[in-house]
Amino acid sequence: xxxxxxxxxxxxxxxxxxxxxxxxxxxxxxxxxxxxxxxxxxxxxxxxxxxxxxxxxxxxxxxxxxxxxxxxxxxxxxxxxxxxxxxxxxxxxxxxxxxxxxxxxxxxxxxxxxxxxxxxxxxxxxxxxxxxxxxxxxxxxxxxxxxxxxxxxxxxxxxxxxxxxxxxxxxxxxxxxxxxxxxxxxxxxxxxxxxxxxxxxxxxxxxxxxxxxxxxxxxxxxxxxxxxxxxxxxxxxxxxxxxxxxxxxxxxxxxxxxxxxxxxxxxxxxxxxxxxxxxxxxxxxxxxxxxxxxxxxxxxxxxxxxxxxxxxxxxxxxxxxxxxxxxxxxxxxxxxxxxxxxxxxxxxxxxxxxxxxxxxxxxxxxxxxxxxxxxxxxxxxx
Amino acid sequence: xxxxxxxxxxxxxxxxxxxxxxxxxxxxxxxxxxxxxxxxxxxxxxxxxxxxxxxxxxxxxxxxxxxxxxxxxxxxxxxxxxxxxxxxxxxxxxxxxxxxxxxxxxxxxxxxxxxxxxxxxxxxxxxxxxxxxxxxxxxxxxxxxxxxxxxxxxxxxxxxxxxxxxxxxxxxxxxxxxxxxxxxxxxxxxxxxxxxxxxxxxxxxxxxxxxxxxxxxxxxxxxxxxxxxxxxxxxxxxxxxxxxxxxxxxxxxxxxxxxxxxxxxxxxxxxxxxxxxxxxxxxxxxxxxxxxxxxxxxxxxxxxxxxxxxxxxxxxxxxxxxxxxxxxxxxxxxxxxxxxxxxxxxxxxxxxxxxxxxxxxxxxxxxxxxxxxxxxxxxxxx
Amino acid sequence: xxxxxxxxxxxxxxxxxxxxxxxxxxxxxxxxxxxxxxxxxxxxxxxxxxxxxxxxxxxxxxxxxxxxxxxxxxxxxxxxxxxxxxxxxxxxxxxxxxxxxxxxxxxxxxxxxxxxxxxxxxxxxxxxxxxxxxxxxxxxxxxxxxxxxxxxxxxxxxxxxxxxxxxxxxxxxxxxxxxxxxxxxxxxxxxxxxxxxxxxxxxxxxxxxxxxxxxxxxxxxxxxxxxxxxxxxxxxxxxxxxxxxxxxxxxxxxxxxxxxxxxxxxxxxxxxxxxxxxxxxxxxxxxxxxxxxxxxxxxxxxxxxxxxxxxxxxxxxxxxxxxxxxxxxxxxxxxxxxxxxxxxxxxxxxxxxxxxxxxxxxxxxxxxxxxxxxxxxxxxxx
Lengths: 382, 382, 382
Prior knowledge:
homotrimer, mainly beta, 16-stranded antiparallel barrel, two-stranded antiparallel sheet, 20 strands, disordered N terminus
């Protein structure tokens, strides 16, 4: 390698370039500096339309078939100064939104620190990257229960006592106003905790399916809880917002407490996951409490593991989800049943997903209504 | 080349870095992965103002001389997995807009596929990059006739039977709501087709002028058509919008059908192009049809090819354009006559353009009005 | 170095990669092309809130403690075609704003040219990057007196006659509508000039503190002036805007003339700077003139230079600032007194700042009011 003749004021380090699944990687010779650059594109066709129904009115929309860029991401990560001072940012190009920007101190497995903006590790479904999903997108539960991205500080780690004594923990204090907030509404912060038991001694990675065909089973059971007081009852990529039925916009209007119990399992190409949710929304102005509930179950299988004739890159996955928008009105239920086929050209980095979903909404006063939706999606990383 | 010592989970490829007219290029050793990174800046001074006049009122504006960043682009392209799986995205930094994001399968010259968002190949003038133009910007026709960027899928290719049997084709199905749309208004899509005869056996590249001083002449004649039903009567970088006189915003309000006939020719530093347009706008609510027409002619010459004293990097170019906003009112005409000088410091990658344009508008009820505009522009790629 | 086998249409240059304080650097072998890529993240905690008070009402806000991403920057610079044709752009990822995009011709030290959009060199405090400050952010003066970023052209340079005959100059013509403007309001441009005397024969760099422990003293005295007619009375990262009390929005409503006298000094870890401001705002519609004044003084010291027990990376800095919103009402005064501690993990590239500020506002009609603010900030470049 020839020496570089640049004159720079500060120390200069010869560097290397290579390519991995994280994209192109620039790395200094001493290993202290590394930058990964990657882009991801998600192209989607949906019929009759793309969005999950929110109210009964959404079932009566006409056909609005659409082909669109659903996600277009620029991802830059790496480390600086030391291999254990890590950073990562992700930018949504199609809507010009900074999604993630975080710094992590990961010197010891059992005690790590994170600061910045990121997807709170509240649920598996939300935390798994939209590029690593088994379905075209997340379930009906996501809109109502996700905490999404927040800004704050966190401590987390893996406590491995050998064998079944294998645990992960996360605890965070966050501003609690969602992605992109520049100020807080009041002095109340968001508090989050998650405890996970890897009872077979191995973690289940935050990635859909079992593409690596695990020869040993891995399973987790986790409980997570979060509490927050803010003007918002839901969070999304757009930041804070309100669920239908909650129109307040006052500072500190809603005190939200929620928890969920999660399971996940992978073994020889089979994957399973579930979440069971409870969420209490207390309106501090109107003094009304509402309780929401819901759960989902998913299972996927690379059928080639059982049937030789089945193509190796083809996975089949099922999902069933139920949401109760108000647990006091037991007849109000929103259901989703979905089947998806994934063709993994190159794992999650280049895959084609086709999905068929039936939504069924029932209400104590309205006749049951349903909709069948078809979606086709290419998700490809560069 | 020293071996790199990074430990990565997935396969690692040693890579190379070089620089071409596409910017810096990162490339994996096996040639399967490549990423080009480039930026472009367009600085413009305009007097009395920058925008083409739209209505007669625009002639009565006072002097609003302006110096501005007109375009600031980040361009990332390359290929992944295979040399024929290509991608490209372009982001407008100054307005934070994702312009292009597309994936191309270009394995055979005669059958290529494209999906994502890109400038529909409807007209040469619009499809040529703003960095490869002979003038400071596009003609008076552009606002009224361009289809601009759309989201969808396309098949295209070059059919070369030898000699004059040399054709290009494009056919696309698109959502038809313009750049950045997230949903469709109804079930009606945009359909686009273009057929091009390269009757001298060679294509004319989509780039202004004949900077490579073609020693053999190249010429094309093309016909293109597009149809769409949407709330919009025009498209631009901002997405869908309406021409003045069309105020509707209902789903599916306007059915637009348009076609154009195009010619282009290059030889020994001389370049020619023309487009002849017809566009029918049918208002499905008010049941009114309007027909628009227009054409432009441009010619450019690197005069050094004929006159030795003329500086080699200096091109002169002329443009004449006429728009009929309503073909039924023949006296309504909008005209543009422009002369431009380009100094190519480094081809289109670094050039200075100075342009003088006279706009003349005539109307059956108003006295004819005109305006003289001067613009100076530096377009430079990094 | 192995040869690369890419076939490209244009000349291909083998290139090098290295890492410096400017981030990763891609460079062509002939040295004509260079691109630096870096990112910067600024994480801030503020109590009771982050923003400087603007009016008395801001003292009565409740506690709104906040943790947030305050700045998230992508910085790309370098040179192209020749080592002296330089470019630089900076993009604010968290708010999707293009901040800087400029081209510089820097062939001779005494005669340089700049075009594009950048922070006008009117004041030291504003021109110093937010990543190179000694405090969490700029003083109370910044909102009222900064000219911020503008679009235009500039000539500048260093005239070095040896010894005390060492001067810098800047002169610019700018559109005068601030960051991101696409057009001008009228024909009046902004004019700016600055003259600086480096009377000890050395420039004081545009960077906070004296981190390099200068063994020879450096000092400057500068005078700068700017005049503009526009709808605006203040500028910020958001573009043009109005100070409280100025509600006009007409084209050319305000003629602003302002000047400032600046000093700066560094020696053996000690740093000093000051600015003294006068600003006249003339309302061309209501024919009212208002005069604003203000000044700040700052001093910082790496105390380890004097006291051995003091930790080497720890700097202490003080700031005192006074603003007169209307010089005719001498009793109206806004004061700020701040103390800050910087821990430089890696110079300005990775530092932790903690700051305590007391704001005191007095008014002829209202009782004096004050507020104490605490802020903690991590500023880290990758």
